[in-house]
Amino acid sequence: MSSHIPVPKRRNGKPQSCEPCRKSKVRCDHTTPVCTRCIAHGVERNCIYHPAPLTKPRSKPVSIPRQIQRGPPIFPPSPVPDQNGPGQPPRPPTWSLLSMQTPRGIEAEFLGPTSFSAVIDDNRDVVDRHTSQFPKISQEVDNCRSEITEERIVAGMGVLQLLMEVPNMGDIIHQYHNISYTYMVPAPFTEACVASMQETFHGPAAKLKKKQLRKHVLDIFENTHKPLKLFPSIIAKDYHTLFTGPNLRWEIVGFVLCMLGVSLRYDVRTGSEAHTAALPMQRSKSIMYRILEAVAYCTTVCQACNSVSHQALWLLYGDTCLKKLVFGDMSYQFWQCLGDLSSMYYALGLHHDHVKRRHCVPYYQYELCRKYASQIFSIDKTFSTLLGRPPRISGRYCRNIMAADVDDSVLFLENGELEEALRNFDENGWNTDGNFRNSTWRRMMLIVCQFREEVLEVCLGAPPDDIRRQVQDLLTRHEMVWNQIPSHLKYDEITGSEHVLPPQKYVMMTAYMDQNYSRFLLHRKLVKTTECSRESLYKISRSLLATVLQLIALSDQTSDMHRDISWFVSSMLSSKISFSNAKSHIYSLLRTTRRQHPSS
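Structure tokens predicted for Zn(2)-C6 fungal-type domain-containing protein:
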């Protein structure tokens, strides 16, 4: 087969070999467009003459940075398991995270109407007509078990050993779910993942030897390398089987570790001894830092695998919550995690709620996406306010639709039972049974944070021309929407919502303070930029301080919440209200609170 197509020349002037011949290190006859040897071996599609052939670069395996410098090492030093027998040379390193970065389908990530994908979709008939003329080329994916370092395998074994050290992690996480309303992933899905992992690592057949543990690590690496469908056709009760059991992935291992760390860090005061029974007090601190490093290992592996999925979002969200509790709201570690979480939010298209999606995916998956979107949007606004920084997620590009105000168990219903459960709403979408749920709190926070973004524009952006009119418009609209929430779901400052249980009262009070704080910021901005009266600012400040002190009293009944509300107090003291005036308010409110709650 001959042709007039010239063959590229090498530096020494000799003709360049085709890629298959060059890689096989055999003589090429330089025939174009396909050489004789490639025709004989049936690999014509691979026969190309690369103008600048590249050899594989020599690079060191990717190492996971040690993010935690305090506490003992995550995994105690242990010898590498000898797989070759005594007297044999050590096995050469296998696995490299770099080799795992194989191309993935772009359908896994959200691409908006300005992307190249949208241009192709708009002209799909033309594109298909022309591409059909070319032969189809199948992408060959290398086996992901080909190259991984033994050091990385041993580190993965250490992560699994850490899970095996906490046999009661299911009870610990379940207790956290019982007293918390602020978790993002519904409790039944999280606890299904935990139960599956406990069966694997703590069940009757869970006495794993080093060889078995090593095989588990390799299997988890291989599973993590496989892409996950964003909207699989599977019922809710079996959803966890896609990424647990024999399909276990590092995203889930890291997420469960995050939930374990958050549950341990949450200072529960309900009289239960589940925490201390599972982990002695002297070990809790060291295990916390080992959990942090194990989660860092999982996130690094998932990033190297280019994991873009809802389960990767679970891991990033859990890591964000854990960093907040350990390092604090003001830490850069926490702020950096928020950035990664926002990037995944956009990559999954959570800002772009497709109404048509509801008719082609299971109901629970549709609702899960709305829960994720509301939670992350609210977190972004809350901590942007705390740090005085512009939010990473702009509401201008988000179509936030509130999730249904139902129990998590409703997500597992189907057909007629599901339709019946979705009828118990008022005209504004709130439940009519009077119960306060995780979804109730999430809906309230979404309302508050949608207005909070407008408040941040006023407070952090350029001063508007008519600030009085803009602030008054914001206050009017905010009050109108807040009043649409049923009164039994809101905290009552006058009565103190005495009939409400402490865990529920806590989240009701935080939502109430958040909406009140938006009003405080607007009035404070007016006082600073105009000559208006400070009376409204004084009134809102007194209300906030009173609620904060009630929350401190409530802390003795549920959990240690001082770290969560300290910034409210500091905001009051750093406002334009004179310090002496604020101090007198604090003293008077403290006296009132102590009379009502002597134990505080």
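Residues 150-348 form one domain.
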